[in-house]
From TrEMBL:
Binding, FAD: 13-18
UniProt main location, coarse: cytoplasm
Keywords: Cytoplasm, FAD, Flavoprotein, NAD, tRNA processing
Segments crossing the lipid bilayer: none
Organism of this sequence: Paraperlucidibaca wandonensis
Subcellular localization(s) per the UniProt record: Cytoplasm
HAMAP family listed in its UniProt record: MnmG_GidA
Gene that encodes it: mnmG
Protein name: tRNA uridine 5-carboxymethylaminomethyl modification enzyme MnmG
Binding site for NAD(+): 273-287
Cofactor requirements of the protein: FAD
């Protein structure tokens, strides 16, 4: 049966990539359908109920700066907020929130259901409609045909999913959910490179059976951080503590004793797992000299007793899981409510995608999230937004858009993926960004909201708030430049009292702010600030960072200019690498495997040397 309504964009999958993709396309005015297995699992967190953290919160703030939902949902659901690296520089500062799993899902569902231009439909997608080399629709499990100009696929860990607990395994998309088998088979018919990856989750624990008195409490920060530019502290639900405990020698002995029944160590699991989020058996094996590992005991929500023991993800047999959990301080009598498990799933080589996340082989088909080899809600959400945006732009007959590496972590993420591919689940780190002084949490709005507005992603309310902040930063910066500290004046004496700094030569306030010890709030305390009270904190932070880091940022700007030059030099998809004289066979093979779109991208492929880039440049110039 053909459904009566034809869509601009269909998004398959209602996880973190799918929800941001659907919302982005709908916000732009595209008629959008979100097709997902189960409406009850929209926005479900498959693993730990936490959003943000180092590198990841930068992505959340970028999604937010482009009008996405993740940060706002976190503000509505967060039960413990912290700023990590708060004593380090602003480039690596990161906000992390423990979320109430049920409240997070409810927030995402509320945002989705209230989004105009967006229909939601519950059913599995089993097949595509392809005409020539273009996708034109989707066929569901019961044979309903939906037509669309573009399709975004965000199926997470579900494609060909297999769940492992010890030596037992069964098919599944994640615990309690069916896998996507028909769609996985269909995708394997397409000329796309496919592989298997693996991820895992720890057993969950009943809080009634845990002795918190022997654990270390970890409260959230005061003042309470917020995640979204539009967020308010009052949105947060009740705040609670997390807890810290540790594994010990006995735990490690139990794990070693179970390795002969571990699906990972007996070769049953073939997929590669996340290096930076390893299972406890992996940690014991890889860091054999460590006799203890830290475990964060995190509440799953305000209305449940379930706890998430962060740090003991495992696929060991259930009896080993029980013993290892009970060997840990405070959990001697613990009751496991859900066993830990590992899941293996299909992912597709992201080198077969363009920067817009459209597949190179089927026009109008976009991939986002775990299917591209990434791990994490934030990485998925960011890609989802980009894919939804580009699917929408294509449906509207407009050119695609993607951020560059100096513009956003999202730019780094996509460029890394499509240039180098990935052999293990890819997660974001601040160290992946070469221009990280420019890509801070605090300036995500400045970097992206104006372009988001042009692309149709930003509503009037957010735009007005953004403009108010920008204007306040500009006017207050002007004021600080026009007010002076003269040696010996009353204001200067007050300044010295507040800061401990001497003024021997007259200088304006902005110059004084360059001194490491001087803060914006101290200058504001001298009087005459023109910033409204509710903007003092954000505007002050922005001005302070702008002033103190100006020198470093200027230095990076030269590198960025060079990058942009190379970014302008496009390499045609049918570029003949065999015709480039002097390239080694190895470099030639790497370039052919990645088919970079620009000279800059070619230079970022591992093993492609600056000399090889010069040879490409010479050939490009010769070809005119
Ligand atoms: P998902 O959130 O998986 O969403 C996929 C959606 O697609 C679901 O709604 C599903 O129902 C739907 N769907 C699938 N197939 C179809 C179909 N054919 N038709 C219709 N709908 C379909 N991340 C970390 O950062 N750290 C971790 O430690 C970690 N551990 C994990 C452990 C486990 C066991 C699992 C399952 C995931 C783990 N993750 C972890 C990964 C994290 O959950 C994902 O990165 C994130 O959820 C990916 O988002 P996504 O939108 O790509 O996919």
């Amino acid at each position: 049966m053909l459904y009566s309504k034809s869509y601009d964009v269909i998004v398959i999958g209602g996880g973190h990539a799918g929800t941001e993709a659907a919302l982005a396309a709908a916000r732009m005015g595209c008629q959008t359908l979100l097709l997902t297995h189960n409406i009850e699992t929209l926005g479900q967190m498959s693993c730990n109920p936490a959003i943000g953290g180092i590198g990841k919160s930068h992505l959340v703030k970028e999604i937010d700066a482009l009008g996405g939902a993740m940060a706002l949902a976190t503000d509505m659901a967060g039960i413990q907020f912290r700023v990590l690296n708060s004593r380090k520089g602003p480039a690596v500062r990161a906000t992390r929130a423990q979320a109430d799993r049920a409240l997070y899902k409810a927030a995402i569902r509320e945002i989705l259901e209230n989004q105009i231009n967006l229909d939601i439909f519950q059913q599995a997608a089993d097949d595509f409609i392809v005409e020539g080399e273009r996708i034109t629709g989707v066929i569901t499990q019961t044979g309903i045909r939906f037509n669309a100009k573009t399709v975004v696929l965000t199926t997470g860990t579900f494609l060909g999913g297999t769940i492992h607990i010890g030596m037992q395994n069964h098919r599944g998309g994640r615990a309690g959910d069916p896998p996507s088998i028909a769609l996985a088979d269909r995708l394997r018919e397409l000329p796309l490179r496919v592989g298997r990856l693996k991820t895992g989750t720890p057993p969950r624990i009943d809080a009634k059976s845990v002795d918190f008195s022997v654990m270390q409490a970890q409260p959230g920060d005061t003042p309470l951080p917020v995640m979204s530019f539009m967020g308010k502290r009052e949105m947060h639900p009740r705040q609670v503590n997390c807890w810290i405990t540790h594994t010990n020698e006995a735990t490690h002995e139990i794990i070693r004793g179970g390795l002969d029944r571990s699906p990972m160590y007996t070769g049953v699991i073939e997929g590669v797992g996340p290096r930076y989020c390893p299972s406890i058996e992996d940690k014991i094996h890889r860091f054999a000299d460590k006799n203890s590992h830290q475990i964060f005991i995190e509440p799953e929500g305000l209305s449940t007793n379930e706890l998430y023991p962060n740090g003991i993800s495992t696929s060991l047999p259930f009896d080993v899981q029980v013993a290892l959990v009970r060997s840990i301080k405070g959990m001697e009598n613990a009751h496991i409510t859900r066993p830990g498990y590992a899941i293996e799933y299909d992912y597709f080589d992201p080198r077969d995608l363009k920067h817009t996340l459209e597949t190179k082989v089927i026009a109008g088909l976009f991939f986002a999230g775990q299917i591209n080899g990434t791990t994490g809600y934030e990485e998925a959400g960011a890609q989802g937004l980009l894919a939804g945006l580009n699917a929408g732009l294509q449906a509207q007959g407009k050119p695609g858009w993607y951020p560059t590496r100096d513009q956003a972590y999202l730019g780094v993420l996509v460029d890394d993926l499509i240039t180098m591919g990935t052999k293990e689940p890819y997660r974001m780190f601040t160290s992946r960004a070469e221009y990280r002084l420019m890509l801070r949490e605090d300036n995500a709005d400045t970097r992206l909201t104006a372009v988001g507005r042009e692309l149709g992603l930003i509503d009037d309310l957010r735009w007005a708030a953004f403009e108010a902040k920008q204007q306040a930063v500009e006017l207050e910066t002007q004021r600080l430049r026009s007010q002076w500290l003269h040696p010996g004046s009353e204001v200067t004496k007050r300044f010295t009292e507040l800061t401990g700094e001497q003024i021997n030569r007259e200088c304006h306030y902005l110059d004084a702010l360059k001194r490491p010890q001087v803060t914006y709030l101290q200058l504001a305390a001298l009087g005459s600030t023109i910033v409204p009270d509710d903007l003092q904190a954000v505007v002050g932070e922005q001005i302070e960072i702008n002033v103190k880091y100006a020198g470093y940022v200027d230095r990076q700007s030269d590198d960025v200019a060079r990058l942009h030059q190379q970014e302008q030099m496009t390499l045609p998809q049918d570029f003949d690498y065999d015709a480039v004289i002097g390239l080694s066979n190895e470099v030639r093979a790497k370039l052919k495997a990645s088919t970079p779109e620009t000279l800059a991208q070619a230079g970022r492929i591992q093993g492609v040397t600056p000399a090889a880039v010069s040879l490409l440049l010479i050939t490009l110039k010769k070809q005119g």
